[in-house]
Amino acid sequence: MSFERVKTGIESLDALIEGGIPKGRIILVAGGCGTGKSILSTQFLYYGAKHYNEPGLMITTEERPKSIRQNMLRFGWDLKELEDQKKLAIIDAASPKARIPSSEMYKISYYDTNSLLLKIYEAVNEIGAKRAVIDSIPGLALRLESESEIRRAISQLGSLLAELECTSLVVSEVNIPGRLGRFGIEEFIADGVYLLENTLTDGRFERTFSIVKMRGTANSKEVHELKITDNGIEVIPRSE
Predict the structure, then answer these.
(1) DSSP-based three-state secondary structure for 66
(2) Domain range holding 45?
(3) Which of 36, 172, 173, 196 is deepest in the core (most CB within 10 A)?
């Protein structure tokens, strides 16, 4: 069976997964601090909106949108331009979590899962979003009181994104050996898992990229070098 493919905006990554992510799938982007998770995810949205005619939605739960826009200009990615063109929407779920007023067009006034789900549904339909990014799951869970609430919220988000047929990247942190997310459920709502790591090699840290799983797609089994360049993320393939 062949699937319609969604290009990630990273050609060397697409080459490792038969040309792109199967349309409508959810991919977990897992890794520690400083491994490039947010850059990779934003690159996926930017290239989709700018070059592939696929509007995108970002749900930010940790960093405020203003800061994201400023940081991504270092790669030449003008997110505000795409927002003005209705090719990108950023839901500010970081400010209400910190009880800070927000002037963003897309925001939730009170931080709870139902409000966030409704805002995602509205934004996807308003701009016709084909791609989505949640950055990040740990930020989403900060105001939830129990592990059962966290698991339910993650499951609800996964179900909504699947229902909306958005090809989605969901960012989470790896801080427990043997888990591919902080809460042990993220990998189970995902159709694929990208693992980004900092590895100590010959006395220096090297960023690496690997594909832990990818349903419906043949994929590389190797650990590849990952670089953050002036143009964003680049995966340096290693021979199988």
Answers:
(1) helix
(2) 23-196
(3) 172
CA distances from 195 to 30, 40, 47, 213, 232 (A): 5, 12, 21, 10, 17
Burial of 18 (0-12, 13-18, 19+ CB in 10 A): middle
What residue has token string 């047929």? 165
For the record, the structure tokens of 82 come out as 């795409």
CA distance between the termini of the chain: 24
pLDDT, position 1: 53
Which whole-number Å values give the CA distances from 100 to 30, 61, 108, 134, 232, in the listed order?
28, 13, 11, 20, 30
The pTM (predicted TM-score) of the whole model is 0.93
Read off the DSSP letter of residue 83.
Answer: H
Task: Find the CATH number of the domain harbouring 154.
Answer: 3.40.50.300
Q: Please list the residues that pair with 91 across neighbouring strands.
A: 59, 106
Tell me: the pLDDT tens digits for 170-181? 999 876 555 555
Residue 123 lies in a domain: yes
If you search the block for the tokens 């139902």, which residue do you land on? 114
